[in-house]
Design a protein that fits this description.
This protein is mostly beta strands and 395 residues long. The chain has two helices and 19 strands. The longest helix has 7 residues.
Length: 395
C-alpha cells in the first residue's frame, strides 16, 4: 500500500490461494427438434496465511459450493426465410460474457468467506435466463441475470446485438437495466446500482483485409440513474490498437490502449459522475480488465481514472508467452491538486506444459506512487511490489 500498510499497519503480506473445480457437461441430440445441453460444476476454494494484499480475504476463508448448474436447448438451423439461423434458450447458473468482458464478464469477486480472490475460480451467475438468435457472426440476445451478494445481489435485464465478419471483426450494441440491487453496494454512492442503466457500443477485431496483423478494440459506455440518492450521469471508454510482427524472432506484438472512467465531481452535490465498471473480468489475458497487477488488482476498481497502457507480448515458442506491460495512472477527480496517481510495470510469463495440461504463470509487478497516490495515503511514498507464481492443472 505504498508503505502505509494494511489496517494493522503490516507492510509485508504473504498468502496462498487454492481451488479445485470439477465440471461435467453433456449434450443430447433430439434429432430434428434440436439439441439439449447441460452443465454442472462445484468449486472448493481457500486462502491461507496473511490473506490477500487488498484485505478482501482475511482470516483464512474457505468455501465449497456450486458454480455452474444450467440447462439449455438449441434448435437445428432454420430453413426458408430464416435459413441458417438458430435459436438457443438456456437457464440456471451459467457463465455469460459480453464482448471482451469490459463491463459484463465475471459476477464474482471471490472475496469474504469464499477465498481465492486472485484466482477467481467462480464465473457463473446466481441465476439467469438467456435467449440467443443468430447466424454465423450475426447475433441478437436478450437476458436476465442475477448476481451474488458480492455484487449487490443485482437483478439485471438487458440485450446484446452483434454484427460481424467471418474474419472475426465484430461491432456490438448492449443495453442493461439493474432493476434491483442491495443498497449497501457502493462505487460512487450507496444506491447507485439500484435502477442503474447502461448502454455501450463496441468493436473488436482485424478491420483491414490487407493488414491481417493489425488488431483494434474499443468500447464506449454511458450510465444514468434517476432513482439513486444522487442522479447518476457517468461514462467510460477505451481505444486500443496492436500490431504483430510475425517475421521477427519471438513474433512480438506491440499494443497501446487508453482507458477513461469518469469520477464523481465533488462540485456537483446532487449528481454522481463516478462510473460503475460493473462485472468486468479477466478475459483476453493480462491487462483485461484488471488494469495493473498492483493498482488494478488491489487499489482502484476501474473508476475515477485515466490510464495509458503499453503492452509488449512475445512468443519464444508455441508453449511460452512472455509479456511486459507499462501503465500510467491518473485520477479523473484527484485528491488534492495532483491527478498523477502512479506508474506501474508488470512482467509475466505463461508456460503451457504437456499440451496445456499444466500452465505455469510467474509474474512480477511494481508500482511507484506519484502525487495523487501520496495524497490519498497521507504522504507514504514507497514502491509497491507483488511477486506471484500461479500453477493450473487441467485433469
Amino acid at each position: 500500500n505504498f508503505g502505509k500498510g494494511d489496517t494493522n499497519g503490516e507492510r509485508n503480506t504473504n498468502w496462498s490461494e487454492w481451488f479445485v473445480k470439477p465440471k461435467l457437461t453433456g449434450n443430447k441430440s433430439l434429432g430434428a427438434s434440436g439439441d439439449l445441453y447441460a452443465g454442472f460444476s462445484v468449486v472448493g476454494s481457500m486462502t491461507r496465511d496473511d490473506g490477500d494484499a487488498g484485505g478482501y480475504s482475511n482470516g483464512e476463508p474457505e468455501e465449497f459450493n456450486i458454480d455452474d448448474a444450467y440447462l439449455g436447448w438449441k434448435s437445428k438451423p432454420f430453413t426458408g426465410t430464416l435459413e441458417g439461423y438458430t435459436l438457443d434458450l438456456s437457464a440456471g447458473r451459467q457463465f455469460y460474457t459480453i464482448g471482451d468482458g469490459f463491463l459484463i464478464g465475471d459476477p464474482h469477486f471471490d472475496q469474504f468467506e469464499e477465498g481465492a480472490l486472485w484466482l477467481s475460480p467462480r464465473g457463473a451467475f446466481e441465476n439467469s435466463a438467456i435467449v440467443k438468435f443468430g447466424k454465423d457472426t450475426r447475433r441478437a440476445e436478450a437476458f436476465y441475470l442475477k448476481t451474488g451478494k458480492d455484487h449487490a445481489e443485482s437483478q439485471i435485464y438487458g440485450f446484446n446485438l452483434e454484427e460481424g465478419r467471418k474474419d472475426g471483426f465484430v461491432v456490438g450494441l448492449m443495453g442493461l437495466n439493474f432493476v434491483t440491487a442491495d443498497n449497501w453496494f457502493s462505487v460512487g454512492n450507496a444506491n447507485s446500482r439500484d435502477g442503474l442503466k447502461t448502454v455501450s457500443l463496441r468493436m473488436q477485431g482485424k478491420p483491414v483485409d490487407d493488414m491481417p496483423n493489425l488488431f483494434i478494440s474499443g468500447e464506449a459506455a454511458y450510465q444514468w440513474n434517476d432513482r439513486s440518492t444522487k442522479d447518476v450521469r457517468a461514462y467510460a471508454w477505451y481505444g486500443e490498437a496492436g500490431y504483430t510482427l510475425p517475421e521477427l524472432p519471438w513474433q512480438p506484438t506491440l499494443s497501446y490502449r487508453y482507458v477513461y472512467y469518469t469520477g464523481d465531481d465533488p462540485g456537483t452535490a446532487n449528481e454522481d459522475e463516478g462510473f460503475d465498471s460493473l462485472l468486468y473480468g479477466f478475459s483476453r489475458g493480462w491487462g483485461t480488465w484488471f488494469l495493473g497487477n498492483v493498482v488494478g488488482e488491489f487499489q482502484i476498481p476501474n473508476t475515477n481514472e485515466r490510464i495509458h497502457m503499453l503492452h509488449l507480448k512475445t512468443q519464444p515458442d508455441s508453449s511460452k508467452t512472455l509479456g511486459l506491460i507499462y501503465y500510467k495512472f491518473y485520477r479523473d477527480q484527484p485528491t488534492g491538486n495532483d491527478d498523477d496517481y502512479a506508474d506501474e510495470l508488470n512482467v509475466y510469463m505463461d508456460w503451457l506444459i504437456d499440451d496445456g495440461r499444466w500452465i505455469v504463470s510467474p509474474a512480477y509487478g511494481v508500482a511507484f506512487p506519484n502525487g495523487a497516490a501520496r495524497a490519498e495515503r497521507n504522504g507514504f511514498n514507497d514502491p509497491y511490489h507483488v511477486f506471484q507464481v500461479t500453477v493450473t492443472v487441467n485433469f
